[in-house]
């Protein structure tokens, strides 16, 4: 079971690829939603308001990723898909790559465009901090105070990551557990007397 993924930690530095007077500015952004991706695109359209094309591709999701590629007026599949190809090549997700083109007066042809968009996307990713992360599941464990010692012992024995706790009239502890260990940990709490465990959606 795949329980790791790669992503970038912060926006890349602006990169520039030139071909026959056309300029291609490349950017990579970490994103978790399509709305975030659209906001970055909007910012770049304002920043580069004299550009001709703002082509992009994004991939979102850890286990079953969704993607979109957009040629923004360039010939079909000459911009968005070459950019998306680099997302696949670097095996990253939760990422948006945008390549902004200023037309230099000379047509590059489809082959030239594919090369330019691919290269600018590759440069943006090479200038990004790519990290490997685990795919985790989040649980909430509910119990009363008398069960506190039992619950804390399971947490300690399994070296579990506590992300939050609410100790009021009853107790709730929120845990982040690596995906491949999640079922076994769920079982441990589920079979513990007077302790309730529930999976939380991301």
UniProtKB/TrEMBL annotation:
Family: Belongs to the IMPACT family.
Signal peptide: none
Lineage: Bacteria, Pseudomonadati, Bacteroidota, Flavobacteriia, Flavobacteriales
Pfam families: Impact_N
UniProt domain Impact N-terminal: residue ranges: 20-125
InterPro entries: Impact, Impact_N, Impact_N_sf, Ribosomal_Su5_D2-typ_SF
Name the UniProt record assigns to this protein: IMPACT family protein
